[in-house]
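Run log // design_07
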């Protein structure tokens, strides 16, 4: 039985690892367009939070996705990043809280599925930059992927940094100028007086969550193989 459980686990992990990795840039429309703000999230110790409206994500993610990482980029024309951040923590959650309702309390913003997806000390962030619109070179691969379904709520993210180190540390971001029911992202930090229409220009890495029948067929096939092997040994 233990061997069977291990084999089933390996099968499920293989399905995820072999799935095609896709990229989605948030806010939409900024894959090849610079933002209007250089954000200093990696220049100071920050607790930055943002809530992304599900309606702005559902066109790219019409079905549940498994978010496996996030990447940032330098502002347009900025050359190089080479900095060591003492600690980076990233948490994701599905939430019923709207962007315009975001607070400085992660416990108030998060939903029941909140998960710490990245937690590391002494994280080295590097990027070459120097282009008119820089590529997403500042890549963070999650320790734990996060399943997100836009039909169940908005996407909340907390990005906490501690004691940043040396070097240039700004990343590209966009300020919408207002925050209302049409603004796709709302953000807040301890330095904001309240929620603002604002978002880090981020590239999420994700894979499609396999349909339940796919898991069932794979597990059924594995069970059949194990049964045949067991009967063969018994003869």
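design_07 sequence
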């Amino acid at each position: 039985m233990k061997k069977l459980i291990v084999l089933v686990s390996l099968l499920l992990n293989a399905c995820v690892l072999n799935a095609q990795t896709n990229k989605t840039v948030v806010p939409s429309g900024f894959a090849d367009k610079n933002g209007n703000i250089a954000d200093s999230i990696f220049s100071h110790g920050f607790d930055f939070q943002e809530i992304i409206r599900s309606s702005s994500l559902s066109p790219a993610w019409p079905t549940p996705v498994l978010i496996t990482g996030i990447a940032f980029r330098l502002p347009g024309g900025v050359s190089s990043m080479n900095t060591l951040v003492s600690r980076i923590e990233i948490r994701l959650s599905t939430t019923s809280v709207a962007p315009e309702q975001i607070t400085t309390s992660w416990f108030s913003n998060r939903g029941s599925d909140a998960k710490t997806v990245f937690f590391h000390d002494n994280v080295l962030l590097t990027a070459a930059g120097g282009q008119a619109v820089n590529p997403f070179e500042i890549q963070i691969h999650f320790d734990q992927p996060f399943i997100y379904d836009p039909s169940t709520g908005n996407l909340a993210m907390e990005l906490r940094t501690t004691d940043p180190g040396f070097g240039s540390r700004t990343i590209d971001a966009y300020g919408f100028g207002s925050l209302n029911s049409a603004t796709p992202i709302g953000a807040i930090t301890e330095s904001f007086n309240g929620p603002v229409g604002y978002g880090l220009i981020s590239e999420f890495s994700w894979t499609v969550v396999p349909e339940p029948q796919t898991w069932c067929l794979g597990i059924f096939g594995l069970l059949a193989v194990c049964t045949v092997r067991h009967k063969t040994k018994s003869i």
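Residues 212-234 form the longest helix (23 residues).
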